Amino acid sequence: MSRSSPDQAARLMRMATYASTSVALVLILTKTAAWMMTDSVSLLATLIDSCLDAAASMLNLLAVRHALEPADKLHRFGHGKAEALAGLGQSTFIAGSALFLCFESIGRFSHPQPIEAMPVGVGVMIFSILATLGLMLFQRHVIRQSNSTAIKADHLHYKTDLIVNGAVIAALILAYYGWPGFDPVFAIAIAGYILFSAAEIARESLDLLMDRELPDEQRARIKEIVKKHPQTRGIHDLRTRKSGMTAFIQLHLELDGHLTLMQAHAIADDVEALILAEFEDAEVIIHQDPAGLMEQRPEFAAA
Q1: pTM for this model (two decimals)
Q2: Dihedral sign for Cα atoms in the order 184, 185, 191, 194
Q3: Averaged pLDDT for residues 200-219
Q4: What Rg value do the Cα atoms of the chain yield, rounded?
Q5: DSSP labels for 74-92?
């Protein structure tokens, strides 16, 4: 699927942050009412998660707005890393909610509480699942059009919410008709899954902040594009990274040594155009080298 233009992608990203914040606020109101009626620790778990969803969505809204600002004299590579910072903030929120939930659930083992108004709790969870599914479908469309890190992190968070909400329904029914201890058992399992989700979001955000290389298949594709040009003789010192929606690609292009500077420049422009045709949001820097030139090349340690 082809990506949207930068302006269209930016508009979609803003809409996704507004949608995420709105859904989180609606779910907080409905889950608060259901928790007060049922006194379920599993429902409390998903209420806490929704509160953190709202905080994370607000953080995303501000981060995306900042990330979409054009480059300026102090930030000449743009502000794209604000998205990764938002993802890292989300993972912190999520991990904190999981730890709080663990402590609350352990206390309930000693003093299990009967579940009240179970049908109300189940109904709220079904509504939550439907609202989350609608938001995720829109987020998936935005990710395809923009490849936004912040929206990916939010999407992953709401993906875990679907599993959490399904588990809460099971916990409410089992605790109501059977042993009340099912409620804290499911709550602890939910907390473990939330921690796993937080680790995934943090890892991707740190990769961007630490300028991790693009995936191997993309690097291989860049080399393939360069070598397809009939006047190129090789490529070395390919370095890549990503910031927000922008990929940064720099490489040394090996050309025949007898070419004039104008000829070498024209070939480099052709190669750059070929790369941009496939990596539309990239910034490409090409250094031309005479083929066969003996020079010291950087060696990188294994990751």
Answers
A1: 0.64
A2: negative
A3: 88
A4: 25
A5: S-TT-STHHHHHHHHHHHH
